[in-house]
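RETRY 2/3 - previous attempt timed out on the joint model. Re-submitting the same 748-residue input unchanged.
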Amino acid sequence: VTIRPPAATGDRLADVDTPALIVDLDIFERNLKCMADNLAGKPLRLRPHSKSHKCPEIARRQVALGAVGVCCQKVSEAEIMVEGGIENVLVSNEIVGLPKLDRLADLNRRAWVGVCVDDAGNVDDLEAAAARADAVVPVLVEIDVGCLRCGVPPGEAAVELARQVAGKDHLRFAGLQAYQGRAQHIRGFQDREEAIDQATLLTRQTLDGLAKEGLTCDIVGGGGSGTYQFEAATGVYNELQPGSYIFMDADYGRNLAKNGELFREFEFSLHIYTTVMSRPMPDRAIVDAGLKAFSVDSGMPTVFDIEDASLDRASDEHGSITLRQSIEQPKVGDKIRLIPGHCDPTVNLYDWIVCIRNGVVEEVWPVSARGALL
Amino acid sequence: VTIRPPAATGDRLADVDTPALIVDLDIFERNLKCMADNLAGKPLRLRPHSKSHKCPEIARRQVALGAVGVCCQKVSEAEIMVEGGIENVLVSNEIVGLPKLDRLADLNRRAWVGVCVDDAGNVDDLEAAAARADAVVPVLVEIDVGCLRCGVPPGEAAVELARQVAGKDHLRFAGLQAYQGRAQHIRGFQDREEAIDQATLLTRQTLDGLAKEGLTCDIVGGGGSGTYQFEAATGVYNELQPGSYIFMDADYGRNLAKNGELFREFEFSLHIYTTVMSRPMPDRAIVDAGLKAFSVDSGMPTVFDIEDASLDRASDEHGSITLRQSIEQPKVGDKIRLIPGHCDPTVNLYDWIVCIRNGVVEEVWPVSARGALL
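RETRY 2/3 succeeded.
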């Protein structure tokens, strides 16, 4: 079954069928350029995370603006990115299980595809897969710099794992993965900065330990859309991995900037386009988008087109909007944009991204890695 | 891009790649039979909701066990169900917008495909679409019996809308949609029963009003997996629309039965199969399933295979499990089953359902209506 696109090139925005994921191309391009400009001239590389968009077309645009390649979280995503013309992909994640390791090693025959490790047994499995494929796989040791997710502790444990990697015939020790995921949505600017200061300290200590062993790091990777400016300033990180900056979402929009105001360096370019399907009460509008059209893990989407209205409740296929101003608008059939609470898992619900410029559909991009779980 | 299936017929469960959606076929078949048996001999029809499974193979099995057809929420789902051999489909939802109404009307040339309305303007649009298709579309008036979502108020407003429908050349007034969605997850048995008693009272009053106008209802539909036994006992509802009973989920599992114990009439047949990808701390295991592999709107998934463990935190591609018993198990590479918090939006994340019997993959079903949003 092929899921039909909700629009075709040349359609007016008002004619895009709903629910649909729409991108304002002018804003999207400003976000891409803003990041590229902010990092221009700095001694570091941008490697945007494709888990946010899962779309080779967007990855190609990021590379065209100077990105070294992209990050992925899954081998299947990496396969789709390589297939889509991206020649440098870091799987910024541990990959476990022989089928996936074999696919990862195979992919290295076609492109540069690195991977992270945090377990000695996994390193042995990865070496075996790389040997089977007659490939050499670049490997980053992931350290836990406060994310409390994967990763070995910074310092000696990381050095020991790096030594193991460096001793393998079909692996190449390529550096450290030091992503502080929990810092991304700390609201206060200084609190975010302090979290990255701490992560940087732990990363630097690990780099010192590696240097004593003669182990050098081509890549010291980390940073997300909420903190990248801090990692960029450290002189320690040399690759930044932000994903959400291209779209933004309501959750990132609640972060604070240095001046104490809301973080608006990047603008909201991504919307869920919905239709009002019911007006059962003067203060209630039901739209045709629910839990299968947006993720609610980071809060409900916000209502973009109506003042003083909130989407308070979502069921599988319905969103319930409480209206506080006009009771006349919107009417059944009106179309309303929402800003997703969390862009990454929301994009993953769609097969197509509808690109809008000046009120007209300019392109429709397939979300090729949508559902690429393996 | 075709998303590869995580397993093939004949594979051992242990070799299913992860994350994957797996169904225990013995349990699944018991759930199907349990519902069929519970309703056997009663003067009502079962019309299971396909929004839970989005899978024509499952719909065909439900019909084979006596279901009259299925419910859908979207026209695109109805198209896929009709394509899959289901000849009787109720879109238990309002459909707004000309492209969708035209597709709905067209579909009525191939199968019985009903729809709900709660708005006079929408009835006019539906009539126009049915006229264009030279079809007669069966229409249910949705009344709000406590769901606080779509639907006209019970009583006179519903009678007036039914009268409008009945006056159209290409529409046929087919009954009432009276689903009490908010009652499904009320934990206490008596509280759930009282909510359905109230919904039934409002439905009966509306039926009385319709009868005075000579308007008869072929279908009086409602009921979900949490309340269907109450609607079945009313003598008012004649079609039941449960969906989740085939799978169950953690949220339904928190409902209480009449004896005050947990609702276990149906068993958990659906799991998310995951791999432990990291064991960074003695009390923490990270699995390779996160917000793109399960929905968290109704709470985190529960951990099926490890005692006294909980999945406490999920990011896009990671689930963090806190272990409280053994610190030895699980190891990196071990596979663990989770019970989803909410089955419907979780199933919608997968392209394939892997069917297991006696530890072996018996079939792999496509989730054909996955992502069918339009």
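The mean pLDDT of chain B is 97. Closing ticket.
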